[in-house]
Description:
This protein is mainly α. It has helices at 3-38, 43-55, 60-67, 71-83, 110-128, 133-159; strands at residues 87-91, 101-105. α2 (43-55) packs across α4 (71-83) and α3 crosses α4.
Amino acid sequence: MSSTTDATGRRRATVALKESLRELRNQLSLLNHQVSAHLALKDVDLDCLELIGRHGPLSPSALARRAGLHPATMTGILDRLQKGGWIVRERDPEAADRRAVAVRAVRGRNAELFRLYAGMNTAMDELCAGYSEEELALIAGFLRRATSAGNTATGDLANG
């Protein structure tokens, strides 16, 4: 097999992989939109709730930076999440400024989210069952690296 044939096959495989990632992104976006609608939240509210749950407690400004949103936009999002009982704002005891606030997710609400994502979680468990532990580690590593690449590209766009 010639190196030209190898390069063409690799290019096709890379294009197919990128296309699959775009399709996955679209499908996950549609799933998250449905979850948001069931919870009477906006998609961006759900995104921020995920960030708070994963990285919180966070200050509103740190959350705005992580989400790539303007702090004024974050205020409205946090107001909606607090009104819905999804988060609480608490004084940040570690901050030098006594007015500083930290935002944390209300843990008791997780069951509602798990219920809405149960179908996808079950489907992922079934899908993963068809792969060896080594294959799953390879896939997880690829996805972490792809996430890192996306993070870098997002930062470049935001700063450029």
